[in-house]
Design a protein that fits this description.
Elements lengths: L5 E6 L5 H10 L3 E6 L10 E6 L25 E4 L1 H9 L3 E17 L10 E15 L5 E5 L7 E4 L4 E4 L1 E2 L8 H12 L8 H16 L3 E5 L4 H14 L3 E7 L7 H8 L5 E5 L1 H8 L5 H20 L5 E5 L4 H7 L25 E3 L7 H10 L4 H4 L19 H18 L8 E15 L2 E14 L7 E2 L4 H14 L3 E6 L13
Parallel strand pairs: 1-2, 1-3, 3-4, 4-9, 11-12, 11-14, 12-13, 14-15, 17-19
Antiparallel strand pairs: 5-6, 5-7, 6-10, 7-8, 8-9, 16-17, 17-18
Helix pairs in contact: 4-5, 4-10, 5-10, 7-8, 12-13
Length: about 500
């Protein structure tokens, strides 16, 4: 990506690091997240550095490592939360435990500073810290404070270093995007040359160079990610792309038929592997084992299919940035949340080489890319569906009978929610391995519980519960209980992300 200006984000373990990246991308500026262990080096197009937050104290014996050479790169630096404390600690200031720790909303009093250009007065911001700056390094001045945090923001205009104790990247912070824009576009001078239209040409050239005269097998599920992956590969390779749709028995009703209709012009093979997947998953209830079994079974099928094509050396997947972030702690001290089937579930002895053209993109960027590639609105705007499918929504043991119950319940949820145009990120049913007593027709029932999950989000990294009208929830519950045999109770999930994840497994 040397053709673009670059904002480098060094990750110190915050679960919000990827959100910073997403917000910078929204400003039309390319950015990359790298672990805090990255050694200083000359980076083409570097215009600014952001030091992320993190759970550690700068005084911890196992505090994340950092190379001071990054402070001498000659570009503006913004420290966020832990990053602000690090700037302080490494340059002669003092950090100490806060007299009153702040977790949640706080009122910020702005007194000046380039990060707050165009802003002023009182601003609600999202705090999450136990330590804070007790004494600033020489040359820094206070830019903002809160009732319990005298140095909530500071700056040294000469060194072009800036620190904020709160998180501007989360939606709870008012005008957080304006603050990031002031830093990225104003202080760093980034012109904003990152667009999905430009990405198409760059990625097509990269794919052609990497694949050469070879052929690519594409795991096409019909979801947004795999569909856009197939579309950009088809643009780059034409008939050297071979799409494989695997019906693993874990799909929603009608998925196979819809994919066959949408991608009829592609070289598409449909494989019915329902029995193979369900046999491999028989008796398995632990979520990570489910994901790994599904991932490996997919790979084996793709390897078998690849033998039909003499030059097929590559496997394409619709892996996205959030998949990688949540699956593998490869960017420094960030915690692993869960393995995604196409990241943590791949076997070590896989014969095919991976090609993942969307690996550094967020979901809404992928949707824009899909429109640039001419995919239908129905395909591009559809809700995310997990790679392991119903396996992570059918909690407990996977059997054909339980999966059929979940599919029928989910079909009702989709049918009731779709006409309402609620702007949901996701809305779906989950079958719980919990039985409850009920009564139907004066007879006792003892059947499973169905949970409904509906959330709003912009990138899948955070989510808040959708306020679905009670009349709608009641109608959905009545239909599920009356029409789906095996469920006698319906509940609504009111958990945000974090602390919960969007999917239940």
């Amino acid at each position: 990506m040397s053709a673009h200006q670059l904002v480098l984000i060094l990750d110190f373990g915050s679960q919000f690091t990827q959100l910073i990246a997403r917000r910078v991308r929204e400003l039309g500026v390319y950015c990359e997240i790298h672990p805090c262990t990255l050694e200083p080096r000359a980076l083409d197009g570097l215009v600014g550095i952001i030091l992320s937050g993190g759970p550690s104290s700068v005084y911890d014996h196992d505090a994340p490592p950092f190379h001071d050479g990054w402070l001498a790169q000659g570009v503006p630096i913004l420290g966020v939360c832990y990053g602000m404390q690090l700037l302080t600690h490494r340059q002669g200031g003092e950090v100490s435990p806060a007299g009153a720790r702040e977790f949640g909303l706080a009122q910020l009093s702005v007194s000046g500073g380039a990060v707050f250009t165009g802003l002023g007065g009182q601003l609600p911001v999202w705090m999450s810290h136990g330590d804070q700056v007790a004494r600033m390094p020489e040359g820094f001045v206070i830019a903002a404070s809160t009732e319990t945090c005298p140095v909530a923001a500071f700056e040294d205009p000469v060194r072009r270093q800036y620190g904020i104790q709160f998180h501007p990247e989360v939606t709870h912070t008012r005008d957080g995007m304006r603050m990031l824009s002031n830093f990225v576009r104003g202080i760093c001078g980034a012109r904003g040359d990152w667009t999905m239209r430009g990405f198409v040409g760059e990625q097509v050239e990269r794919i052609q160079e990497r694949v050469g005269t070879g052929e690519v097998i594409c795991a096409l599920s019909g979801g947004v990610d795999s569909s856009v992956t197939a579309a950009i590969l088809h643009k780059a390779l034409g008939d050297r792309l071979h799409c494989i749709f695997v019906d693993n028995g874990l799909l929603r009703n009608g998925e196979r038929e819809a994919v066959r209709a949408e991608f009829g012009d592609f070289d598409l093979t449909v494989v019915d592997a329902t029995d193979r997947f369900l046999n491999a998953l028989a008796g398995v209830v632990e979520p990570e084992r489910k994901r790994k079994i599904i991932g490996e079974t997919f790979i084996r099928i793709f390897e078998e299919q690849a033998r039909r094509f003499e030059n097929a050396q590559w496997l394409a997947q619709g892996t996205l940035y959030p998949d990688v972030i949540e699956s593998v702690s490869f960017r420094g001290p960030s915690a692993t949340i869960k393995s995604h089937h196409n990241v943590g579930g791949l076997p070590d002895d896989m014969k095919l080489q991976l090609i993942e053209p969307l690996r550094e993109l967020f979901k809404d960027e992928v949707r824009v890319l899909g429109r640039e590639l001419g995919l239908s609105a129905g395909r591009v705007d559809r809700q995310p569906f997990p790679g392991p499918g119903m396996a992570v929504r059918c909690l407990g043991e996977l059997t054909p009978a339980r999966l059929a119950v979940l599919r029928d319940a989910d079909a009702i949820v989709q049918a009731e929610l779709e006409p309402l145009n609620l702007g949901l990120w996701q809305g779906f049913a989950v079958l719980l391995p919990v039985k409850s007593v009920g009564v139907m027709g004066d007879a006792r029932t003892y059947e499973e519980v169905c949970a409904i999950r509906c959330v709003h989000s912009t990138d899948g990294m955070t989510a808040h519960v959708a306020d679905i009208p009670m009349s709608v929830l009641t109608r959905i519950a009545n239909r599920i209980i009356n029409e789906v045999r095996g469920i006698n109770r319906v509940v609504y999930d009111v958990s945000t992300k974090p602390p919960a994840t969007i999917e239940w497994e």
